[in-house]
Amino acid sequence: MSALAHRRFLKMHGAGNAIVVLDLRGTGLRVAKDEARAVAADPGSAFDQLMVLHDPVSRGTDAFLRIYNADGSESGACGNGTRCVAYAMLDDPAMARPVENGRLVLETVAGRVEVKRVADRSFTVDMGRPRLAWDEIPLRDPFPDTRRIELQIGPIDAPVLHSPGVVNMGNPHAVFFADRDPDAYDLAQIGPMLENHPIFPERANIGIAQVLSREAIRLRVWERGAGLTLACGTAACAAVVAASRLRMIGRQASVSLPGGDLSVEWRADDHVLMTGPVCLVAEGHFAPGLFAQMPVAQGPAAQGPA
User: Fold this and answer.
1) Would residue 237 show up in a list of annotated catalytic residues for this protein?
2) Does residue 291 share a domain with residue 260?
3) Is position 232 annotated as part of the catalytic site?
4) Is the pLDDT of residue 301 over 50?
5) Does residue 3 belong to any structural domain of this protein?
6) pLDDT band at 297 (very low <50, low <70, confident <90, very high)
7) Model pTM score
8) 73 and 49, same structural domain?
9) Hey, CA dihedral for 255, 260, 263, 266, is it positive or negative?
10) How confident is the model at residue 295 (pLDDT cuts 50, 70, 90)?
């Protein structure tokens, strides 16, 4: 039987992004891919991202955070999920620990992330510096200018989408800028093709953005490992960075996604700040039968956060 059976979790969302928060601090356990997929497949715990808390690894951090997509793959960052984790660590009776000034420092495989409360259920996440070099994103080919790369969907002489900006915000993003509403594009069809395009050796999140003004962007996202989502915090950050690099906007904008609005600022010190709400949907416990179809019982590989 999976060690996750009977464990408590929180079902939340951040601007519509479905999030499950699981606290494994003090256990030494680690979620396996099959376990993450099993949790995502159940309607009661379905998620876009599973945020798993582990004991701190580095001095000065409050927890080590592992992030799983619905297909069981891992992600380096999830801004909407990080806000949900902050709520859990500050307000949930079973998960909360004493912290100072409503600020947390979390560590992920992509680095440290700072988050602070700005209202009762609103948080600002410091997503760190965007990575913009072709080999940091990463891309297969050495593009010297990643503001626009050679990639298109549709006929050469009349592409449907073309020349995305690419940004790594803890995970790879390609942002296509469109002159009409992103809903006009069949992202459910073209998203999987673009996510798995050979130019992205680690796959990519795909965004279609419409710049509405110097301070407003409309965005839809096909999320790597999750599919169409109502919101994606790192995609919102990537869209603002990509648009700012092209001088389509300034360094701050409201990003409207199907699940709600996020405020993003690319500061002069190169850090990207994202602010948005969280919502607690429910709490529950994983039923043992949830993991009954897993092919192999979990052993030593399930330990760690390392």
Assistant:
1) no
2) no
3) yes
4) no
5) no
6) very low
7) 0.89
8) yes
9) negative
10) low
